[in-house]
Amino acid sequence: MKNKFLIFAVLFFLVGFSGTTFAQTEDELVEICGMIAKDATYLKDFKVRLDAGDPPPLQRFSVILKKDIKYRFSVCNSKDMEGKVVLELFDNNRLIATTYVIATGKDYPSIDVVCQKTGAYHLSFKFKEGKPGLAVGLLSLVETL
Amino acid sequence: MPSSTMTRRFLFFVVVAILFSSCNSCRNSGKRLSDDFVIPDSLNSEKQPLEISPSVISDMVQNISSPIETAAVIKGLKVPFNKDYIANTKFSENFNTNFTKALGLGIYGCDLGYLNMYGKTSLVIDYITTVRSLADGIQVGQFFDFSTLKRLATNNENIDSLVLISQQSMTRIDTYLKENKRSNLSVVIVAGVWIEGLYLSSMVAQETKHQRMIETIGEQKEIISPLMLLMNNYKKDPNMARLIQSFEEIKSLYSEVKITSEVGEPTAVEVNGVLTIKPNDIQKIDISDETLQKIIAKVQEVRAKLLKG
C-alpha cells in the first residue's frame, strides 16, 4: 500500500514538473514576436496576462509615438492558454488601429502605423470572448520617413 | 535488506533527482533572474522613494524616450556619425551614487543606441563596459547581456542583434526596477536617455540646420510634460528635486513653441498581407530661431552639469 502511494507521488512529480518545463515563458513569446516583426527594430515589449471575464478585461499601456516614423505592432499568443489577443491603438478615445478587424473577421499578427503626430497614445490589449490568456505585444520601428 | 525498504530508498532518490533536474530546468527556461535574487529596496536606495503602485506606473507612459528612435531619425537624415556628440566614458567616474549611476545609465544607454545604429562596433565595447558598470552599481547588471554584446561587437557581426540585445537589456532593467519598487531609478534612467537624445538632436540641428531635426527638438514639448509628471512623483528626493529644477528651465523655454494638430480620418491599406494604417493627422510645429537657440544652449548647459555628477 505504502509502495503504491510512493509510486503515485513520483508520477505526480513527473507530470507536474514536465508541465512546468515545457510551458512557454514570456521571454520566449517576446522572441517569437520578434520573428513576427521581421526586420523591424525592437523598441519595447508589453506582457499581457488576463483572467477570463465578461466584458473582456483590458490591459492598457501608454506609449509615445513620434511623427514621421513607421511603427510595427506585433502580437503573439501563448499556446498554453486559449485566449487570442487583440491589440488596439488609441489617440485619446479615437481608435486608430487594431490587429483584429471586426468587419472582415481577420486577425493580423502585426500591423504598421505611420505616425504623423508626436504625442502620447494608448495601447489596449484584450482577449477575444473574454477568455483567459497570456500574450506579448511588441513595438518596433520599421523606418523613418 | 527487505525489498520494500529498497523500493522506498529507490523512489526517494528518484524524487530527489527530479527535484534537482527541475531546478536546473528553471535556470534554463528563461526564468528571470529577479525571481531568484530579490534585492530589498532598503539595501539599494539612498532614500526610500515614494511608493507608487505598479499598476499606476504601468499606466504611465512606457517609452518616453528611446535611444533607437532618436538615432534612427538622425541616421535617416543621412547625417554622418560624429564621435564628439556622445558623452566621453571618462565622465562615468563622476557617477558615485545610485541616483547619478542611474542617470549615467540613461545617458550612456542613449549613446550606445547611437553607436549601434551607426554600427560603430570599435567604440561600442567601451560604452557597453561603462553601461554594464553603471548597471552593476545599481544592482541591475544581471539584466545586461554583457558577454553576448561584447562578442557581437568584437566580431563586428550582426548589428541588428547588437541593437536588439542592447535595447532588450534596457527594457529588462526598466521592468525589474518597476517590479521591485525602485521606479524612482527607472524614471531617472528615462530622464537620462531623454536629455542625451535631446542633446544629440540639438548638436545635429546646430550643425546641419535640418528642418526635421529642428522639428524633433520642437516636438519634445509633447514629451517633456509626461516626463516631468513621472519625475514629480519623486520630488521629495533632493537629487530628483534638483533634476526637476534643471528640466523646468528647459520646459519653460518650450512655452514659446507652438504645436497645432488636426485630427484626420484613419485609412488602412493591405499590401502583401501587411496592414498599414495612416491616421492622416497633421501636426505643425512652430519654433523661432531665437527659441531654438535658447533651447539648444540650455540643453547643452544642463547636460554638461549632469555629466559632472
Description:
The complex is a heterodimer of chains A (145) and B (309). Chain A has 145 residues and is an alpha+beta fold. Chain A has helices spanning 2-22, 26-36; strands at 41-50, 59-65, 69-77, 85-91, 94-98, 100-101, 106-107, 110-115, 119-127, 133-144. In chain A, a hairpin with a 4-residue loop joins strand 6 (100-101) and strand 7 (106-107). Chain B is mainly alpha-helical. In chain B, strands 1-4 form a two-stranded antiparallel ribbon. Chain B has a two-stranded antiparallel sheet with strand order 2-3. In chain B, strand 2 and strand 3 (274-278) form a beta hairpin. Mean pLDDT of chain B is 81; it is low at 18-54. The chains are: A alpha+beta (145), B mainly alpha (309). Chains A and B meet through helix 1, helix 2, strand 1, strand 2 and strand 5 of A and helix 1, helix 5, helix 9, helix 11 and helix 12 of B.
Summarize the structure.
The complex is a heterodimer of chains A (145) and B (309). Chain A is α+β, with helices and mostly antiparallel strands and 145 residues long.
Write the layout of secondary structure elements.
The complex is a heterodimer of chains A (145) and B (309).
Chain A lengths: L1 H21 L3 H11 L4 E10 L8 E7 L3 E9 L7 E7 L2 E5 L1 E2 L4 E2 L2 E6 L3 E9 L5 E12 L1
Antiparallel strand pairs in A: 1-10, 2-9, 3-8, 3-10, 4-5, 4-9, 6-7
Chain B lengths: L2 H26 L4 H4 L4 H4 L9 H6 L7 H10 L21 H20 L3 H17 L8 H9 L4 H21 L3 H26 L2 H8 L2 H12 L5 H16 L4 E5 L4 E5 L2 E5 L3 E5 L2 H19 L2
Name a few traits of the molecule:
heterodimer; A: Jelly Rolls; 22% helix; globular; B: mainly alpha; two-stranded antiparallel ribbon
State the end-to-end distance of chain B: 72 Å
Tally of individual helices of chain A = 2
Rg of chain B, alpha carbons: 23 Å
Question: How are helices and strands ordered from N to C of chain A?
Answer: HHEEEEEEEEEE
What's the count of strands of chain B? Answer: 4
Spatially, the strands of the biggest sheet of chain B line up as 1-4
Give me the count of strands of chain A: 10
Stretches with pLDDT under 50, minimum 5 residues of chain B: 18-54
CATH class type of chain A? Mainly Beta
Question: Major sheet of chain B: size, sense and barrel closure?
Answer: 2 strands, antiparallel
Oligomer designation: heterodimer
Describe the global form of chain A.
globular
Helical percent range of chain B?
55-70%
